[in-house]
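We treat protein structure as text, and this decision shapes the records that our systems exchange. Because each token names a local backbone shape, the row as a whole describes the fold. For reference, a complete record is included directly beneath this paragraph.
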Amino acid sequence: QVQLVESGGGLVQAGGPLRLSCAVSGLTFSSYAMGWFRQAPGKERELVAGLGWSGGSTTYADSVKGRFTISSDNAKKTMYLQMNSLKPEDTAVYYCAARVGLSYVYWGQGTQVTVSS
């Protein structure tokens, strides 16, 4: 049974940092490309950052480049999203996901991030 469990969300002031974690079980972590998504109220879910299998290549949405960093620890089977210089527009539910082929098929339950101005 595949499980992705996010943690680390919360309330933070604008300009502050926050680190999200995604603990993965039930799959060979290093063999999957992974990603962090977010969904704000009334908006579509968007890919924030992507990580190639075995922690290879990284991609970022333009809105977070230079502020967010995606990484992973294969030994801990955990993916991270370090978020710095947070803005109120970063407020959303953040999800981690694992990709099979071209589609993200395994999802976590989400963690709320709220950035106050």
